[in-house]
Design brief:
With 663 residues, the protein is an alpha+beta fold. The chain is built from 19 helices and 27 strands. It has 3 domains: 19-235, Ribonuclease H-like superfamily/Ribonuclease H (Nucleotidyltransferase, domain 5), CATH 3.30.420.10; 246-450 and 510-584, Palm domain of DNA polymerase, CATH 3.90.1600.10; 452-508, no CATH class. Helix 1 crosses helix 2.
């Protein structure tokens, strides 16, 4: 029999937390070599009272020696604190891990997700001396923007990251005129920003090393101040300890377990499906649909609408909770009952339907097929499709759940009220917290945990691991190995009488997920946006483009559907006189007043109208962007200058082929 452990509620955090004594911010600076590889030349930390800056000129231009000194100093002066790097998993951990692991007498235990180290605990003699976390997972966004949003004392400065002379030593010791603008990152430094710097250094020599020190110290101070403000604001609203979370979704999940779940448990339970039905029900966990229906709107007015808080709106609806049951269910029984849950079924799409209403995965992409096809569907989305022309032909499998009408409703209502009041009172940071929590809450339920553990071990420990587990990979890190391993027989999960070694492994696996709830949220979201699409077609309008929570039509929608303050209603973002929609997330809008709005996924700059039209004509564009190749195994971050749109027309043709296939 399958065992479904209960997701338990959490006790409220009591007492005031003095974050000044609990956190430290740290950062690395790397120079980009001619081959694109990144070499760390500076490191710094700041804890509100003390600060340290290390650079390789102090250590014989040896990065490893400098980083070993940095790690020892950081640990020694911040015992018991949580250290935050902004983008630790994507950058800093890769570039600095080996020197840390080389330190004697310390044991490092990682938490890894999708190849990135989310967090790391450093222990000495069994006691945790420092915990490292990635602040970008807790507060997503660029550090400069976060500093502005939170109005902290220290704002992010500017730096020419692409500056490099003949060699490392010459570059670091450069003193002279400020480097030219092309060596700065344009999305971080505007021409006007650069002009101010030119004025600042008009009578003062620009020193690479001194400017680097100012820059990195500004970054760690800004990050510290942002985190302090964020944590203080968070605990003023919710009784949790933010130092215990790893990401925005885990923050929202902890609030839900502390505030909402105790109320729900009076009526029903929510179960952890991570080690039981996750792989089965995950087939129904699909994202939003992005479609181009008509590529060019001209000589008429276009209307670009967004749905207010789409996912939070979906979360206010009944969720699948309680103990899941595999039941026998016929088509007639489904049609004539209030069955609530998930169905694996065979359906036939309406031959007259212009938009697809039931998505499946096809070659890794989300599509809405025509004709007859099989999929795993949430019951309410399936009913919505049946009400709009689809036919249910066969049911192969069905999982029944209870309806949980209050699963998120109270908490989403509270957060939405908090967001609206903050907006009215000009409190952007509180508004941002409410919005972040509302939009990230459901994601934690859909987290894919897997049955894999990672550990840093000495080679001699491999024999013990292989005796009990299957080793999936070994990555050398100096004298240690990062080993990924799993159970030799996954079917032992849930059985009684497990050997102690296997039981410790199973108990330590991340859990407390419920993909059924996450799948229901995304399904409800598709129902909401598709309801607006169907209404537009009913009114005789033409749909040109739609994203997960938006649609573009050639006429106004009824006023009773528009309200920028109500969850689930539409807000009119733009009216425009010309729109070019090349492919998903690649479009051009020219507004009535002549303002131009563009979006090109994968390209940070703006394209011209002629370039968008060229893409519609299936012509290639030569565009250069900066990308990063990251390898935890090689301990390397490499900057790559590439042309993402060189073969854009090939991707466009491929997209159009699939689009015509599924319509």
């Amino acid at each position: 029999m399958i065992r479904f452990p209960e997701i338990e509620h959490l006790m409220e955090s009591k007492g005031k937390i003095d974050f000044n004594n609990k956190i430290v911010a740290a950062d690395l600076e790397a120079i980009i070599n001619p081959d694109g590889t990144n070499k760390v030349y500076m490191a710094a930390w700041y804890n509100g009272e003390n600060e340290r800056i290390f650079d390789i000129t102090q250590w014989g231009y040896n990065t490893n020696t400098m980083l070993e000194m940095f790690w020892q100093d950081l640990i020694r002066n911040n015992l018991g604190r949580t250290c935050y790097f902004h983008n630790w998993g994507g950058n800093d951990s890769i570039l600095s891990l080996i020197p840390l692991l080389n330190l004697p007498n310390y044991v490092c235990d990682p938490i890894i997700n999708n190849g990135e180290i989310m967090a790391l605990t450093i222990s000495n003699k069994g006691k945790i001396v420092l915990t490292i976390k990635d602040s970008i997972r807790i507060l997503p966004g660029a550090l400069g923007k976060l500093a502005k949003d939170w109005k902290v004392e220290t704002q992010k400065d500017h730096f020419p990251h692409y500056f490099f002379l003949n060699d490392l030593k010459t570059t670091l010791n450069y003193i002279g005129e400020i480097p030219e603008y092309s060596l700065f990152e344009p999305k971080r430094t505007s021409p006007s920003d650069y002009a101010e710097m030119v004025q600042e250094f008009s009578n003062t020599p620009w020193s690479f090393l001194e400017v680097s020190k100012t820059y990195i110290l500004g970054d760690v101070k800004a990050l510290y101040q942002i985190l302090l403000a964020f944590f203080e604001t968070l605990i003023s609203k919710f009784p949790i300890d933010p130092l215990t979370v790893l990401s925005a979704p885990s923050t929202a999940f902890k609030i839900w377990r502390t505030v909402q779940l105790p109320k729900l448990n009076k009526e029903f339970k929510v179960y952890d499906l991570s080690k039981s039905l996750d792989s089965k029900l995950r087939k129904a966990y699909l994202g939003g649909i992005v479609d181009v229906y008509r590529p060019h709107l001209i000589e008429q007015t276009g209307y670009y609408y967004d749905v207010n808080s789409l996912y939070p709106t979906a979360m206010c609806k009944p969720m699948p909770v309680g103990m899941p049951q595999l039941v026998d269910l016929t088509v007639d029984e489904f049609l004539n009952s209030d069955f609530f849950g998930f169905v694996e079924g065979v359906v036939r799409a309406s031959s007259e339907e212009y938009i697809g209403l039931l998505p499946i995965k096809f070659q890794g992409k989300l599509i809405c097929p025509g004709g007859i096809f099989t999929g795993f569907f949430f019951s309410e989305e399936l009913r919505f499709a049946l009400d709009n022309g689809y036919t249910l032909l066969e049911i192969k499998q069905a999982y029944k759940f209870e309806r949980g009408p209050q699963t998120f409703l109270d908490l989403i209502t509270q957060l939405n009220r908090m967001k609206i009041e903050a907006q009215l009172n000009s409190q952007p940071t509180i508004r941002n917290i409410a919005k972040l929590l509302m939009n990230s809450m459901y994601g934690r339920f859909g987290m894919h945990t897997g049955l894999v553990q990672q550990k840093f071990v000495e080679p001699r420990q491999l024999d013990y691991i292989t005796e009990h587990f299957e080793i999936l990979s070994e990555i050398p890190f100096g004298e240690l190995l990062l080993v990924s391993y799993t159970l030799k027989d996954p079917t032992v999960i849930g059985t009684r009488g497990l050997a102690s070694t296997l039981k410790r492994f199973v108990d330590s696996l991340p859990g407390n997920t419920n993909v059924a709830i996450a799948a229901a949220v995304t399904a409800y979201s598709r129902i909401i946006i598709n309801t607006y699409k169907l209404k537009a077609l009913e009114l005789g309008l033409e749909i040109y483009y739609s994203d997960t929570d938006s649609l573009v039509v050639n006429g106004p929608l009824p006023e009773d559907m528009i309200d920028s303050a109500t969850l689930g209603k539409l807000k009119l973002e733009h009216t425009f006189k010309e729109g070019i929609f090349v492919m998903p997330k690649v479009y051009y809008l020219e507004l009535e007043d002549g303002t131009v709005i563009t979006k090109t996924k994968g390209f940070p700059g703006s394209l011209t109208k002629e370039q968008y039209l060229a893409l519609l004509r299936e012509e290639s564009l030569d565009l250069k962007v900066t990308k990063w190749s990251r390898s935890l195994a090689k301990g390397r971050v490499q900057t790559i200058f590439c042309n993402p749109a060189k073969n854009c027309t090939n991707r466009l043709c491929k997209f159009l082929d699939i689009w015509s296939f599924v319509r």
